[in-house]
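One thing: mind reviewing this one?
=====
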Amino acid sequence: MTPLLAALRSGNWKCLFACFLYFDTGFTAWVMLGPLAPYIGKQLVLTPARSGFLVAVPVLVAAIVRVTLGNLFQSVDGRRLALLGITLSAIPAFVLLWPIAPTYTLLLVLGGLLGLGGASFAIALPMAGSSYPPRVQGLVLGLAAAGNIGAVVDGFLFPSLALHFGWQRATAAVLPLLALTAVAVILWAEDRSAKSGSAARAFGGFAVSLIGVMALVLLVDAGLFGHGKAGLLLLPVFGAVVALAVLPRKYLAVLAERDTWVVMLVYSITFGGFVGMSSYVSLLLTTQYQMPKVDAGLCMAALSFTGAMVRPIGGFIADRLSGVRVLLVLLLAISVCNFAFAALMPSLAGGIALLAALYFCFGLGNGATFQLVPHRWRGKTGLMTGIIGAAGGIGGFYLPVVMGIARESTGSYQLGFATFGALAALALLLVGALQQQWLAWALPGDVGLGLDAPVAQAE
């Protein structure tokens, strides 16, 4: 028996598949506006900054809601939460089937609901991991999170459907996928993690965070914080304050730890890069290289496929070498690729090559980052999945927003790529400085991980 098959058979592989499918279709719903953005922008006559904001809103909502959804997972069965998320993610497609011309404001609200698809990360990963032993967590969490292959479905499916049937009707293609996922979750999903705390209080916090961040989105769009760029850039900060305000105090202790912030920064670059670029790359290709919309969608699908497929490999390698060593190499590569794009502003072939290299590093980095979580935060995997995933989503929000602002302000994407190159370089320096300390707990091993222990026991 191969090591991979042995690892899969050491737990409930049907549950793992259901969790993968849940995250996959959730991701499809989540970044659905990305490949449709060129069609939407043409119909509503949107500026680059407003187009960037539109595709970034689902990413932001997912980032904020992941935190409170991760908290809710600590006290509620994951299967129920998955079905709730699937239901809410389906609402935008039903609304867009109505024979009305949607406004920009309506699309912002619907984008917020699509964010529930991305928030599935906080449920799918810990639920899948709860059925497996500690020694294979990097691989298992990487396989579950490979559901970000849902972005591939977006690129292949929605631009072609929008071309033939209109972009509003094209969104209905997500509904049978969500229905299939609901059946798989009902039949196969299983949550073996220990539960503690008040379910009612946790659900209230989840509802407040969802409604609060959607209200902030509308207020920023209405110009409450001015009609410049400051409101867009401060929005994630306001949203994070809302989420943190409703979390139990004992969970906030992890935010006082230096390691939490460094891992959050790393994931905001790897996963933030993946989801942010998946949301924006269609606009990048159509505006920078005048690529046809359908071709841009296919290119997005190919790039997303690359990043999604290598994520389990990143976890698998990290299980053997540690995520620390793997991330040092990947962060250097991400920084170099971003600076190269900014400096060269290459031709189409060179641009695609650099984007492919970035997606490859994003995918490996995502798997390597989450190999660290169960080793460092024993008994808090569900909570930390939400918090670190939120940081990834916030990074994914800033990428399209900053790219849109750079394009609108300077006529070029150079400043956007240079900004993210500098952030990757900063993360590289921090991980390098902490390398020896982290290796003391990050090296592969089974001893004392306590993945299924209640959070309260780990305090």
Summary: Residues 258-288 form the longest helix (31 residues). The domain at 13-445 is CATH 1.20.1250.20 (Growth Hormone; Chain: A;).
